[in-house]
Structure formats: structure tokens, C-alpha cells
């Protein structure tokens, strides 16, 4: 955990906050969800994660320089509002640092007396692909799966339209957060959607947002308009991610081993 430092640019009361892990795993669903919620709820850039393992790049948003791994929150939250703490990045953490990063996030959540961590990501399902199966996949419904670290956290899943994730492997920061939540008795929920090339990340991302809304936000989001806006955001993030990946790749040591991100 000493590899990472969470620096707050503004002091925020995170007691009983819901923490969203928006670090990318499979596809762009994590980035779309976290970035869209930042825009929708007008969250403020209140901190960042600093680490020598992160690529030496600066993200520019609205002419403001920002760190590659950022923390957003409601700066004007009222006592009855659900405070959100969203960690997001366009960079996918390398497997070598996922454990330390996940442990740092959950330790920060515990120290700040947050009540719940929600992590979202893509789920790879191996299938034989042919033209008939591909056409069927295009027409199929995207399913949201969920799993909780504690019986208390499982009650949140009961309030959302998600299928229980019964068996499989969860990788990345999502897997670490879930495991640490189970070990420490802290409430962690992981929401996953199937990630395939023939299913738009935007549609899957909107369904993840709907599940989060049902569980904690209670804003009764309308999915139709959200899909169109998420598709536009998806296009922007694809360009940014491609540029970021090229820069991160150029910073790899000459032996070809990545310093922190791929």
C-alpha cells in the first residue's frame, strides 16, 4: 500500500459515503459509468491517487490539468444527500499493482468511515463465435451480475435488477476489493456486465448505472436518454484511452516490462 498515496485537494466529509471504483478492467464500462456519474451529478475534482507506478501523463479536462487517477465527490453535499467518492482513470492498472491499489482504496474507505464500495467492470465469457451466434448476441439483452462481500451488502443487490454471480473469477481491483471486503467485514459490491465486441459498452454501462441508482442513488434514471449520452461519452473515452495507452507504452523500460500500466 506504500506504493500509493491518496491526496485530497479539498477536505470532504466522507462518513457514510458510497465509494465507486471506476478503474478500467474489460472494455470501457468502468470509465463510462464513473465519468458519466461525475458529469450527471456535477461532482468536483477533490483529490487524486499518486504513485510512481502510474504513467507520467497529465489528463486535461476543460483546460484543467488533472492526475491520471482522480477522486471526485459532492462538494456541496447536504446532510440528507448520499455522498459519493468516485475513483476513476482512463488507464488500466497492470496486474502487478492491482493488489496494492485495491488494498489502498479499501483502507482509505475504512479510515474515512465510508459505508459501501461499489466496483463495476466487464465480464469475459468464452464462446464459439460464428455469424449466427454473432447476430444472436447483437439482439440479446445485456445482463448485469452482482456479488457482495457480506450478507449486509447482499441486501443492496436485492434492491437492483441483477443476476447473482454464482461461479467464476473476478480480476483487477474489483477482485481485490471483494476479497478484502470479505476478509475485513466491509461492504463491497461488484457489478459486472458481459463484455463482447458485438455488444456496445454504452448499453452495458447504462444498465450498470441503473443498478447503482436502484441500490443507492434513488434518482429513477431514465435509460433511453442515458444510452445516447453514454454512446457519445464512449466515443470520447476511446480516443482518450488510445492516446493514453500509447503514451504509457512509450514509457515502458527497454526490457519490455511495463512500469505500472498496460
Explain what this protein looks like in three dimensions.
There is one protein chain. This protein has 262 residues and is an alpha/beta fold. It has one domain (5-123, 142-250): Rossmann fold (3-Layer(aba) Sandwich), CATH 3.40.50.10900. It is 40% helix and 21% strand. The longest helix has 28 residues, at 223-250. It is globular and about 40 Å long. The model is unreliable at 254-262 (pLDDT under 50).
Descriptive key words:
alpha/beta, disordered C terminus, 21% strand, 262 residues, Rossmann fold, two-stranded antiparallel sheet, 40% helix
In brief:
With 262 residues, the chain is of the alpha/beta class.
Secondary structure layout:
Elements: E1 5-8, E2 18-22, H1 29-40, E3 44-50, E4 59-61, E5 64-66, E6 69-73, E7 84-89, H2 95-111, E8 116-123, H3 131-139, E9 144-148, H4 151-158, E10 163-164, H5 172-184, E11 188-194, H6 201-217, H7 223-250
Helix pairs in contact: 1-6, 1-7, 2-5, 6-7
Amino acid at each position: 500500500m506504500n506504493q500509493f498515496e491518496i491526496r485530497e485537494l479539498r477536505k470532504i466529509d466522507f462518513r457514510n459515503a458510497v465509494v465507486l471504483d471506476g478503474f478500467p478492467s474489460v472494455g470501457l464500462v468502468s470509465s463510462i459509468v464513473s465519468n458519466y456519474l461525475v458529469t450527471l451529478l456535477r461532482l468536483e475534482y477533490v483529490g487524486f491517487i499518486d504513485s510512481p507506478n502510474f504513467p507520467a501523463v497529465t489528463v486535461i479536462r476543460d483546460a484543467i490539468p488533472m492526475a491520471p487517477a482522480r477522486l471526485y465527490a459532492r462538494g456541496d453535499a447536504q446532510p440528507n444527500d448520499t455522498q459519493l467518492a468516485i475513483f476513476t482513470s482512463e488507464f488500466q492498472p497492470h496486474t502487478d499493482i492491482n493488489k496494492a491499489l485495491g488494498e489502498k482504496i479499501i483502507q482509505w474507505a475504512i479510515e474515512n468511515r465510508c459505508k459501501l464500495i461499489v466496483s463495476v467492470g466487464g465480464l469475459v465469457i468464452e464462446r464459439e463465435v460464428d455469424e449466427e451466434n454473432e447476430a444472436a448476441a447483437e439482439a440479446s439483452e445485456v445482463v448485469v451480475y452482482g456479488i457482495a462481500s457480506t450478507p449486509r451488502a447482499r441486501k443492496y443487490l436485492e434492491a437492483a435488477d441483477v443476476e447473482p454471480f454464482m461461479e467464476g473469477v473476478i480480476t483487477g481491483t474489483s477482485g481485490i476489493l471483494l476479497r478484502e471486503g470479505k476478509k475485513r467485514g466491509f461492504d463491497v459490491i461488484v457489478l459486472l456486465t458481459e463484455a463482447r465486441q458485438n455488444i456496445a459498452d454504452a448499453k452495458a454501462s447504462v444498465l450498470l448505472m441503473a443498478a447503482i441508482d436502484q441500490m443507492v442513488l434513488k434518482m429513477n434514471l431514465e435509460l433511453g436518454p442515458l444510452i445516447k449520452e453514454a454512446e457519445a461519452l464512449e466515443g470520447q473515452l476511446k480516443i482518450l484511452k488510445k492516446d493514453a495507452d500509447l503514451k504509457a507504452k512509450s514509457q515502458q523500460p527497454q526490457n519490455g516490462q511495463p512500469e505500472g500500466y498496460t
